[in-house]
Amino acid sequence: RAVPTARRPVVKFCHKQSGLAGDISIDNRLALLNTRFLQLCTEADERVRPLVYAVRLWAKQQGLAGNPAGGGPLLNNYALTLLVLFFLQTRSPPVLPTVDRLRDMAGDEDRAMVGGWDCSFPRDVASLEPSANTESPCLLLAEFFHVFGDFDFPERVISLREGRALPLPAPDVPEGLKLGPFNLQDPFELSHNVAANVNEKTASRFGRCCRDAAKYCRSLQYRRKSSKGRAWGLTRLFQPGAVEPGAANAGAFLISIPLDDTGGSQQLCREPGGRGPWFWEVCAAIAFVLSDVLKCDCAAAKKPRAPSEESWLAEDSVPSQEDSAL
Prior knowledge:
Elements: E1 2-3, E2 10-14, E3 21-24, H1 29-44, H2 48-61, H3 77-89, H4 99-105, E4 113-114, E5 117-118, H5 137-149, E6 156-159, E7 164-167, H6 200-217, H7 220-223, H8 233-237, H9 264-270, H10 277-293, H11 321-324
Antiparallel strand pairs: 1-2, 2-3, 4-5, 6-7
Helix pairs in contact: 2-3, 2-5, 5-6
């Protein structure tokens, strides 16, 4: 599937046998070097890869991440990966070196300039010194949520080049960098904000979800197995929905159906045969549970014809068994 409106036109594809998705782009050396940089980081420390996967899965389950074609308000996997790498750069002692430090370590064979940007870094992970940081992956994950739960994204630019957050306005922020509610600078193309598509609502939700996750990571439910058979530890963290400790629905898979006072069940009964818009929203929610949660095979049925005006239900009547069956 071609995406000509992307920042750099790509063809997106999915390998049917494995389900793996990929992109094809031509003459994009920056993307190639970015990939090699990410590979170097994952080889530099064995904690990087599981931490990146954990954050990406958590963000996906919270509805914060995706790969929208041609833009959208969600964080993409590349932005989340850079956010984790930046976090690891800022630990004391650091888990990963800054991009500036990597540039200083690069040999002559590692030098690369693309579009005026210095993309130099060692290609051989053996050139990097092992980190003196001994924090466990679970502790790092909890600290990730703690750090970004109160992070002021609109007033700072996250720089992997320097390994610090640059306050705004800053004289060293390059011209052309699109600033917004979430500012995350590409490690090489410094005028590119990889989270420029994120809107204020998503940025605010990201911080709130990080705070909830940090609170959960401090709870007993995160550290101890539940005596009531509820999901606990990382399992609970990676389930959809809020993870506030002690919640009555902890471990439950919740799907919200908007049957409120303004429309709700009363409106459902006022619709002809009880099969108006609200009815089909309920059906869609139940179909989601059957197909995506319980993994049942579901076939879509044709919507029935709207009944005549005489068959409308009275406001205070109760739908028949046939009408109320989903």
